[in-house]
Amino acid sequence: MKIIAMLNLKGGCGKTTISMNLAATLAELGRRAVVVDLDPQASALRWASQAVDTPGPGFNLRRDVLALPVERGAAQFKDKLLEAGKRTGAAVAVLDCPPELRDPALVAALLADLVLIPVTPSPLDIWAAEAAVATAREARKERGGRLPRIGLIPSKLISGTVLAREITTTLEGLGEAVSPPIHQRVALVESTVAGQTIAGYAPASPAHLEFQALAAYCTERLK
User: Fold this and answer.
1) Pair 46, 192: CB distance under 8 Å
2) How far apart are CA 162 and CA 121, in angstroms?
3) The whole model's pTM is what?
4) Fewer Cβ within 10 Å of end Cβ, the chain: N or C?
5) Phi then psi for 151, rounded to 5 degrees?
């Protein structure tokens, strides 16, 4: 099972929104995914609790959003992830980390094949992203220099603004790959309230197409 860690020490950058919708669009591409909620706020679990159970092979919020403790360290947590993968048939686990670089996030970085760092077009978020990149690079060093790969996600962009146009260039300056962007869209908020992902709430919408592009990017980076 491949592991994606959604990492940033700053709240409000879109980690949970991206985790849930990425998992759903990965499933559309044939890579069954689960989301593991590591945030004490339990936003992903609350989102899933509003969902209507929809049996089938795709992403099921009731079944595929999990809470797994990380208190006993990376090895034990990885065992729990693998057990969850066998139980659900998941090929990918998306770890929705808390807005801090402490034990859950550090364990996630040590286990991840790909660390994704959502960054809004704000100086505060960019400074926080620098710390997240440093954490992921330290994990890579401890693991021999190959994994995790790192991707920076331009997040919550507002179309037509100077900040939205410039953020990709700014993030490239951090020395890591930049993924397709995710814009701030009303449909993303509405889908959360409805207990759905964007794939079910507004298929083929601009928001859905952006997440399909992000899922394709992640699939390529996980090879």
Assistant:
1) no
2) 10
3) 0.95
4) C
5) -135, 130
- Report residue 98 as tokens: 């808390």
pLDDT given at position 55? 63
Rg (CA), the chain: 16
Structure tokens that stand for 73 in this block: 């360290």
What is the C-alpha to C-alpha distance for residues 208 and 155, in angstroms, rounded to an integer? Answer: 14
At residue 17, the 3 state secondary structure works out as helix
Element (H, E) at 126: helix 123-142
Residue 33 CB neighbours (<10 A)? 28
| pLDDT band at residue 9 using 50, 70 and 90 as cut-offs | confident
- Per-position b or e across 170-208, b if 16+ CB within 10 A of its CB: bbeebebebbbbbebbeebeebbeebbbbbbbbeebebb
Closest by CA position to 116, among listed 136, 100, 98, 134: 136
How confident is the model over 57-114, as pLDDT tens digits? Answer: 689 999 999 999 887 678 899 999 999 999 999 999 999 999 876 788 889 999 999 9
Whole-number Å distance between alpha carbons of 118 and 157: 11
φ and ψ at residue 96, rounded to 5 degrees: -90, 100
The rounded Cα 142 to chain-centroid distance in angstroms is: 22
Q: Are 138 and 201 in contact (CB under 8 A)?
A: no
Is residue 153 pLDDT above 90, yes or no?
Answer: yes
Consecutive H or E run containing 93: strand 92-96
**CB-based contacts of 23, cutoff 8 Å, min separation 6:** 33, 34, 35, 59, 64, 92, 94, 197
